Amino acid sequence: MLKNFWYACEFSPAVTNKPKQIVMLNQRFVLYRNSQGQVVALKDQCSHRGAALSMGWLENGCIRCPYHGWKFQADGQCIEIPSNAHRTPIPKKASVNSYPVQEKYGFVWLFYGDLLEEQYPPIPLLPEYEDSTMHPIYLEYEMKAHYTRVIENALDPAHLYAVHANSFGAGFAQDPRVEDYVVQDEDWGISAKITYKNYTKPKDGIFKSFFRPARTQLNARTSFFLPNITKIESDFGRGKMVNYAVHIPVDANTTISKRIQFRNFFTYSWADKIFVNFHHRVGLEDRVVTESQYPKLIPETLSTEVHVPADALTLAYRKLRQKYLAMGWGLQPHKSTLYNSKIDLITLR
Questions:
Q1: Which residues, in sequence order, are CB contacts of 292 under 8 Å at separation 6+?
Q2: What is the C-alpha separation between 8 and 328, in angstroms, rounded?
Q3: Bridge partners, 241 (sequence order)
Q4: HSE of 193, CA atoms in CB hemisphere, 13 A
Q5: pLDDT tens for residues 7-39?
Q6: H-helix or E-strand containing 313?
Q7: E strands of 135-271, at which residues?
């Protein structure tokens, strides 16, 4: 896991004036909105006896610990200890960590790291969010897999005909070859344009109606943005679809992928449920194989696993990740912070 990046940790509408626990990077955070509607992010662990602040309540823009009622400001400083006698000084250590947050592209972004503010890497651009011709849907699901494996699954162009044989991948069955492609460096990421020359109709599902010719050229661009965002753009002539996924590393064995899918065809709102269900079906197909991979974490050395030309994009991801680990931007697991924690998940939005 990497530090010193902005992490999209939750959809904006899911953060309200009720404290909400987020588990990410092997740690617990609490998010809530103050009286001005601004999002506050704190460590979800009272500095007194370690109770989860997310079980507490809000009071005048501050949060009260559910155990002894200690009151913390948005900057994490404790300003009231109910059990203390009047005018008793508050201990200097009576505070909890607070974190920079932004709201952008329908997400709440939390910065986790030790850089100065002027050194923060930027939040990646999601231009489709501002494009009125692109209609969005939102969903999420969990995998019992390390986030590096989940990211590689999203970047991998060769698994489609096998893993998704019963959905859109059936269109690759007659010609599963992946033409050689070039990986390009992007700002804080990588991308590749991949062309599938002989894509045929899927067996069923919503996409069957949009592929009339027996063989269609499918143009795709797959991108990765540090630390954990994948983007897949698909253009099949009669329409365009863009899939963003934020793969949140909960712990060493759990990843939550929060997704926004944009489309410029069949943009009726009543059709959203069809696309959500289909997207979820595809995600379940990926989950079966991704959860089976061993070791859970991608190997530290490239020679541990066998590679072929189609793996150029996932290999580029491994090298990019190793670059920032070598810079000291890696995080060590903090198992104790997740002891007895609970994750509240909504599988579909």
A1: none
A2: 22
A3: 234, 263
A4: 3
A5: 999 999 999 999 999 999 999 999 999 999 999
A6: helix 312-326
A7: 135-143, 183-186, 189-199, 216-225, 229-235, 240-251, 254-263
DSSP state of 48: T
Q: How deeply is 22 buried, as exposed, middle or buried, from its count of CB atoms within 10 A (0-12, 13-18, 19+)?
A: buried
Q: Where in the chain is the domain with CATH 2.102.10.10?
A: 5-119
Q: What CA–CA distance (Å, rounded) separates 339 from 112?
A: 21
The amino acid that residue 84 corresponds to is: N
Give the tens place of pLDDT for each residue, 96-106: 999 999 999 99
pTM: 0.91
Q: Return the structure tokens found at 316.
A: 């580029």
Below-70 pLDDT ranges, the chain:
201-214, 333-349
Residue 266 CA: distances (Å) to CA of 6, 138, 220, 240, 243: 33, 16, 19, 11, 16
Tell the residue number behind the tokens 């491994």, with chain if given.
318
Question: How is domain 127-327 classified at the CATH fold level?
Answer: Naphthalene 1,2-dioxygenase Alpha Subunit; Chain A, domain 1 (3.90.380)
Task: State both tokens at 240.
Answer: 């365009």
**CATH superfamily assigned to domain 5-119:** Rieske [2Fe-2S] iron-sulphur domain (2.102.10.10)
Block residue for tokens 């983007």: 231
Query: Tokens 């899939």 correspond to what residue?
Result: 243
